[in-house]
Design brief:
The protein is mainly beta. It is 0% helix and 31% strand. It has strands at 3-7, 15-17, 22-30, 47-52, 55-60, 68-70, 77-78, 83-87, 92-96, 143-144. A hairpin with a 2-residue loop joins strand 4 (47-52) and strand 5.
Length: 148
């Protein structure tokens, strides 16, 4: 599976948005160290995984970041562009794409600067039936809460 990493500098907006729509299956925090985000071992840093419909979005702390705040819970439905969470002082966000979405499907190049809620990482048609990707990226982002 393809993993797309987005690094956030201290001056970036630290709100993480959904690359596609779907139902949130799991939100899980894993404790860990706080290595600089660019290091390979940062993969073990403290992180929050948000799993939904074939995708996994992982928010990782860095050397400076101390807090990850997810905005969604298991059972919620999100639209593409919805706010998934916030990383205080930035770090890194990894998007593990669904099986069948390959490197040629990416709409971004390595090193390209992206903007949350504006940049398309993968065109919706690349997802096929794996996600609820037919919502417009510039429509009002929303999260539909599950009944608790």
């Amino acid at each position: 599976r393809v993993r797309l990493g987005v690094y956030l500098s201290l001056s970036d907006v630290h709100v993480v948005r959904a690359p596609a729509g779907g139902r949130v299956h799991d939100v899980r925090r894993e404790r860990g160290p706080r290595w600089p985000a660019a290091l390979a071992r940062a993969e073990k840093n403290e992180r929050v995984h948000v799993d939904f419909d074939g995708l996994r979005v992982t928010m990782l702390t860095g050397a400076v970041a101390r807090r990850i705040r997810p905005y969604v819970d298991a059972g919620d439905r999100v639209r593409r562009g919805a706010r998934l969470g916030h990383i205080a002082f930035g770090s890194r966000v990894d998007v593990l794409l669904p099986p069948g979405v390959g490197p040629d499907d990416l709409a971004v190049e390595p090193g390209e600067r992206v903007r949350a809620g504006e940049s398309v990482l993968v065109p919706p048609e690349a997802f096929g039936d794996a996600t609820d990707s037919d919502s417009e990226p510039n429509s009002t982002p929303e999260v539909v809460r599950s009944a608790r």
